[in-house]
Structures are given as C-alpha cells and as structure tokens.
Amino acid sequence: MLQKALVLVFVLASIAGCISCGSTSSHYVYATIPVANQIIAYREDPNSGVLTQISGSPYTVGEGAISLVLHPSKKFLYVANPGQGGTQENDISLFTIASDGTLTEVLPRASVAPLASQPHLLLMDPAGAFLYVLNAGSSNISVFSIDSTKGTLTQLQPPNSPVSTGALPLNMQLTPSGNFLYVSLASQPNGLIETFSVTGGQLTPLGTTSTDGMNPYGLAINASGNYLYVANSGPSNSIAVFPIASSGLLSAQVQGSPIANGYTNPIAMIFDPSGNYLYVADQGSSNVAAYSITSTGLPAALTTSTTTNAFGTESSPSFLVADPTGKYLFVGNQGTGAGIQAFGVSSGSLNALTTYSVGNTPSSIAVLQ
Predict the structure, then answer these.
(1) Is 237 left (phi over 0), alpha (psi -120 to 50) or beta?
(2) What pLDDT digit, counting tens, does each position of 72-127 carry?
(3) Between residues 208 and 19, the one the model is more confident about
(4) pLDDT number for residue 9
(5) CB under 8 Å to 55, separation ≥6 — which residues?
(6) What is the pLDDT of residues 37-85, one digit of tens each?
(7) Which CATH number applies to 2-368: 3.40.50.720, 2.120.10.30, 2.130.10.10, 3.30.365.10?
(8) Which residues contact 228 (CB under 8 A, 6 or more apart)?
(9) Are 304 and 288 in contact (CB under 8 A)?
(10) So what's the pLDDT on residue 6?
C-alpha cells in the first residue's frame, strides 16, 4: 500500500522542480525518504545532470517526512511530517538553505493539529506568501501565511484554515496566477475535481466536476493556465483535459477527452519547463509516456521512443520533476530498484542516464537552481 500512501506528493515535485532557469550555476536536488525520516541532498551538475551527495546529507527531519516544497526566494524548504508507525506528528518543518545547498532546520515545527491530521502534500503560491497543506487524515486543507524574511509559518484562523474538501483529497494544483486551486477527490463511481477561488490565501469553494475516470491522482496545468490535465489511474488508465474558464470553473472536456493512456496506472504528470511536452509516470507499466500538446490542448503521443510514446524506467515510477533548464528529468521509483533515475531530455525524448540509490523508497523531489 506504499504507492497509495505516497502518491499524494507526486505532483508537488513537478511544481517545485521549475523554480528558475540557468545553465552554469549549481543546482541542488532534495528528496524525502519517509521510512528513514530523512532528506537526502545532492548537488546537480547543470551541464551533465550528475548528482553528488552534499556533505552532511542526509538530514534528519520529522516522522514519515513525505512531501517537500521550495520557496521562490530559494532561501527556505518546507517538509510535511505526517508521522508513521502509530506516531501522529502532524507538522511542517522549515529549513533554511545556504548558498552551498546545505540545510539547517528552524524549530519549532508548525503543527496542523488539532483540526487537521496526516499532512501529505505541500503546495506554495507563486509569490511565496502562502503554503497550502493537503491533510489526508482529516480531508481538509490547512493554509499558512509565510514570513518573507524568516520563512516562519502562521496558520490562518478558522474558518479560513483548515478548509474541508468533503471527501478524501488525492492531489492539488494551483493555476500559474495563483488565483484558483484544484483538488482531486476520491469518489465513486468517478473521481471529482473541486475548484476553489483564492484571495489572500483564503479558499472559497466554487463547485465540483467529474473526472470521467477513477482515482484521479495526477494533476497538471499548462503554463498559460487555461487547461487542467487529470491522470485517472487504474482501472480507468486515462487522461482527461478540461478547459479552465476565466471564472476558474472547469468547462466540458475538450473533444476527444478522456484519452486512453495505453499503459497501466498513470499516477503522476508534469509539463517540461518549455510547456511543449507532457510526461506521465505509469506506475504499473514501469515507463514514462511522453506527449506533445495540440492546439486544442489534447495530448498527442510522441513517436520517438522505442515503445510507442513511452520510455522505460525502473519499477514503479511514481513521481516526476524537471531540472529548471529543461535538459534533465528526474523520476522517483518506488519498486525493487527504489531510487532517483536521471534522464536527458531532447525534443521531448528521454535518454536514461543514471539511477541513484537512496537506501529506502523516496516520496518526493525538488530541484533548486
């Protein structure tokens, strides 16, 4: 059941991976290892994609550390600690980031209790003013304001935090403008997408939309903020595409949607930094499917791979993050070869480079440049 427990964090890695662009300065890669309560930190050579573990890494963090997100100032990193083995930690760690990529935790940790439990996914608004926390144990979202100087968190007062989602939340995504938040929900017979408007960190529910598929774990929004992509995992194994209206509400799916993914358990998705290609991690098929985007917003399968529009990975690829330059893609694998797999990227095609063992199953990755 590990894949289901960790799947909530996958799209977080895709959001945190595109902070800024550059090709000469060092990049830093951070990965959460829940079983060990650790963060592993690497220096990434931006010219080769090679990862070198930073001295002092791994860093100890809270129980079951499962999700992380970077502040756009590049000064702070936040980690969700739900707890494990019967321990309910239910808090968020704050780390400061030094110029050499090393981390220092700032205590005390910010709790989501008593009105929320099991924080599983972190999401930050584009301005770095608010942190949104998806709580799997209490089916709600906590909202924290962020001190721009110290990075410290202050939770908004009820009823502004936490905000109920009405059903088990699986994932969430903000539009590039930060004005609308979409939360995928577990529901029968089909999953749902709940839409919230966002004003000063406050969430106002606007309505729900059926995904026309079960288990909507993967979410992605294009750079223009006018299409929402939903990966419906097994048994649906499909990708749905919804136009986003100016009101934030989701319109009827584009013609031809949902499309059959062709592989098993599409679990996470990400756009490359250029916005031209969509990658989908197929957990059950041990590959990453690649798509270009048509003028209607519908994904079109690439034909440059040895297997139709897919590139083989280690077993159970479960989350994705792009290097800010767009030259590399990192895949988190949760099968027998658990680790971080690096791919070179060229015109949407992927070329396997190296797999880095992290000792235990990773749950999320973020890349800082």
Answers:
(1) left
(2) 999 999 999 999 988 899 999 999 999 999 999 999 999 999 999 999 999 999 99
(3) 208
(4) 43
(5) 102
(6) 999 999 998 888 889 999 999 999 999 999 999 999 999 999 999 999 8
(7) 2.130.10.10
(8) 173, 182, 193, 219, 220, 221, 241, 242, 244, 250
(9) no
(10) 41
Q: Cα–Cα distance between 180 and 334 in angstroms, integer? A: 31
Neighbouring C-beta atoms of residue 108, cutoff 10 Å: 9
Using one digit for the tens of pLDDT, what is the confidence trace for 321-353?
998 888 999 999 888 777 899 999 998 999 999
Paired tokens of 339: 């680790």
**Phi/psi at 316 (nearest 5 deg)?**
55, 60
Number of Cβ within 10 Å of residue 2's Cβ equals 15
CB 126 within 8 A of CB 152: no
For the chain, the domains span 2-368
Q: Could you say which DSSP state residue 250 is in?
A: B
β-pairing verdict for 59-60 and 67-70: unpaired
Q: How many CB atoms lie within 10 A of CB 347?
A: 10
Q: What pLDDT sits at residue 305?
A: 55
What's this model's pTM, rounded to 2 decimal places? Answer: 0.91
Q: What is the dihedral of CA 354, 72, 118, 103, to 10 degrees?
A: 60
